[in-house]
Design goal:
The chain is mainly beta and about 725 residues long. The chain has seven helices and 36 strands. The strands form five sheets. The protein has a 22-stranded antiparallel barrel, surrounded by four helices. It is globular and about 75 Å long. The model is unreliable at about 20-30 and about 630-635 (pLDDT under 50).
């Protein structure tokens, strides 16, 4: 047992010993929070038998967070991964890649993953009621992209007429302004929300033309109307419009030259979702939904001197998803849910050869049974069947059970499978980067392109058997979670969860051939296997009614099974960069996958004084060392150094790691006359920076926020 593990166990034992004294005068921890994402039906969080967590609006406000990335980066088991290529920051869950986590807004998927990641800063928190996080495979309800879990952002729908204004000013001349108004009359509710975000960006390398992040602004407009007829019929309409504009100035560097360019990037995101809910008697419900969304991203760059067009990039994605869901209580112990729908998805980009829409149609059916026995046992079983002519049909089963050994102690376990269908780019990409010396072809384009090059006599050497690259199969996972929850007289709560994810058919970039002018041709194939496993633990309690405390810890191991097999076979070596002497790598030398910290810890303190209306928060987050993979760097020409120091293409103890670091975030606020609130805060108080290796962490961020709320009684 390592020193770190022994200290953690000792700390937990001491904290548990002290809890009975600390909670003597404390308020109760809320255990009956209702969530919907885990089962697509309303359940108290205390009866959900899988790993879940909820971030409520109160905690978001206390922390001072205004964008989705800010609040998720503070959560246990989640990690925001920097994308230096400018296509957004992704979120890891239980060590799984960002494109394995589905992100929903009011239960519907947010689209626009250019490179598999979703830009988290697109989502404002100003009108968020709560965020529900489900860890582990959720394909049994949500299909592809939910292999690792689901994050559902639920917006506010107040029952009172009110006006809410907010203004935040922060470092880098950042302005975040919002307006949220709600009108309620009888059973009719109308909500209108608007948000405008603007920042001057930041620059880690003033000596290079352009900025690390160029100035940009975006605006969000959401409209909701809801009509409820005595609880029997509910009609709901949600619409959203988002637009972002960015001014770009880059110095693009290639192997032989550099050129200065300027231009613009524009992003548009529109969605509409009508919904009808019908209550049949006291035991049955029917829910009809239809969701349509369109995402567009355009980039235009021109040469500084001549003004001639240098580069254009266009991407458009559309999704249409109607669904019907019915739920029925046969008695107090049994509840059945069945749903069916289709997902009609299209993508068009100039990175596909013909710049035409590529279409995929998926039909799906799911069924779920929820069983409850004497407030002792909660058992949820579900299965979903996806039918897709491109990547084949998929079964996604899941089972989860919770046993209340006694009222204070609950044991829970869940087992399920997940899948991630091949992205459009894996099939249809036709991208030629002659300046950087490589071509990338999707599996549907590869053979015809190689035949064309071969006929012209341009192929010098094949690096891989082309016949082995054909139809791609979905990436799949099998996962298990084992957990326990102990409630100290409803005053405090201790949770622990052990998880394991086994993945296969992982899609990997494959070098296929080299041309006579030494350009490498790449494609994709299902060849990789990996696993992640670890343990998560948390303690939450209140002290003297006004201080809520959270202690969180995660230990994560994430490794490539193919690398482990090669190490066992004695095929992996390292090379000293100075002496050039080679040495064999052992299993204990192998650290694991890139961009994953072994240890993540956090301490959070939230202070609320209802008498004086003073509030404050203190959040300290620690991330241990991790490695970063090789990448060409940013469009400004800044090279991101790889951790691989001994030239063996894996992460081992001889490599150069990004050092572990602390982030300290604080805030303090005061409410006047129950309407006007002032808040001051600082994120990354210690001003930690690593410009080349953590480019999304620009340093200390100071801010002031003003909120005004008027409620009509």
């Amino acid at each position: 047992m390592t020193f770190v593990v022994r200290m953690r166990l000792l700390t937990i034992i001491c904290l548990i010993f002290l809890l009975n004294k600390l909670i003597a005068q404390s308020d109760s921890i809320q255990l009956n929070e209702v969530i919907i994402t885990a089962t697509k039906t309303e359940r108290s969080i205390g009866t959900v038998p899988m790993p879940v967590s909820v971030i409520k609006a109160k905690m978001i406000n206390l922390s001072g967070s205004s964008r989705l990335q800010d609040i998720l980066n503070e959560q246990s088991g989640l990690n925001v991964v920097a994308q230096i290529n400018g296509f957004g920051n992704g979120i890891q869950m239980q060590g799984l890649n960002p494109d394995y986590t589905m992100i929903l807004l009011d239960g519907e998927p947010i689209i626009g993953r250019l490179t598999g990641n979703l830009e988290l800063n697109r989502v404002t928190l100003a009108n968020v009621k709560k965020i529900e996080i489900i860890k582990g495979p959720s394909s049994s309800l949500y299909g592809s992209e939910a292999l690792g879990g689901v994050i559902n952002i639920i917006t506010k729908s107040p029952l009172q007429s009110q006006l809410d204004l907010g203004l935040k000013y922060a470092t880098n001349n950042t302005v975040d302004a919002s307006l949220n108004t709600n009108w309620n009359h009888s059973n009719l509710n109308v909500s209108l929300f608007g948000n405008h975000y603007r920042t001057a960006g930041f620059d880690f390398h003033p000596d290079i033309y352009g900025q690390t992040v160029s100035p940009y602004s975006n605006s969000t407009l959401q409209f909701q109307i809801k009509q409820d007829w005595n609880g029997k019929h509910l009609l709901l309409l949600n619409t959203k419009a988002f637009r972002e504009n960015q001014e770009n100035n880059y110095q693009v560097v290639n192997a032989s030259d550099s050129i200065r360019v300027f231009g613009k990037t524009q992003i548009n995101d529109y969605s509409i979702s009508p919904q009808y809910k019908l209550k049949i008697g006291e035991r049955a419900f029917v829910n009809l939904t239809s969701y349509g969304s369109m995402y567009q991203a355009y980039t235009y760059l021109n040469q500084n001197v001549s003004g001639l067009a240098y580069y254009t990039d266009s991407f458009e994605q559309r999704l249409f998803k109607p669904e019907i869901q019915a739920s029925c209580f046969f008695n107090a112990a049994h509840k059945y849910t069945i749903g069916a729908g289709l997902a009609y998805e299209g993508v068009k980009t100039n990175r596909y050869d013909d710049d035409k829409f590529r279409i995929q149609l998926t039909n799906y059916l799911y069924i779920q049974h929820e069983f409850s026995w004497r407030n002792k046992v909660e058992w949820v079983n579900g299965i979903r069947y996806d039918m897709n002519p491109v990547y084949g049909n998929q079964w996604s089963p899941k089972t989860a059970i919770q046993w209340a050994v006694f009222p204070e102690l609950k044991l829970k376990t869940s087992f399920g499978t997940g899948f991630k269908s091949p992205d459009f780019r894996y099939l249809y990409l036709n991208f030629r980067n002659a300046a950087a010396g490589y071509f990338v072809y999707g599996t549907s384009e590869l053979k015809s392109e190689l035949e064309s090059l071969d006929q012209k006599g341009e192929i010098q050497q094949y690096l891989y058997d082309v016949n082995l690259i054909g139809k791609l199969f979905p990436e799949k996972s099998i996962a298990i979670n084992l957990g326990a929850q102990y409630d100290f007289h409803s005053k405090a709560q201790f949770e622990i969860n052990l998880f394991r994810n086994d993945l296969k058919n992982l899609i990997e970039t494959q070098a296929v051939a080299i041309t006579k002018d030494l350009k490498t041709i790449y494609s994709y194939s299902n060849i990789k296997k990996a696993y992640t496993h670890g343990i998560e633990a948390s303690i939450r309690f209140k002290i003297k009614d006004c201080i809520q405390t959270e202690l969180n810890s995660q230990v994560l191991f994430a490794k490539d099974k193919e690398v482990l097999k090669s190490i066992e076979d004695g095929l992996v070596f390292g090379r000293d960069p100075v002496t050039k002497v080679s040495y064999q790598i052992s299993k204990s030398d192998y650290f694991g996958l890139y961009n994953r910290s072994r240890h993540t810890e956090s301490i959070k303190l939230f202070y609320e004084n209802s008498k004086s209306n003073w509030n404050a928060s203190f959040r300290l987050i620690y991330k241990s060392k991790f490695g970063i993979s090789n990448t060409a760097g940013s469009v400004q020409g800044n090279v991101r150094p790889s951790s691989d120091a001994n030239s063996n293409a894996i992460l081992d103890r001889f490599d150069h790691f990004v050092s572990g670091y602390f982030l300290c975030n604080i805030s303090i606020s005061k409410l006047f006359y129950s309407k006007l609130k002032f808040q001051l805060g600082a994120d990354n108080l210690f001003n930690y920076k690593d410009p080349d290796r953590i480019p999304n962490l620009f340093g200390r961020n100071l801010y002031i926020t003003i909120n005004y709320k008027l409620i009509k009684n």
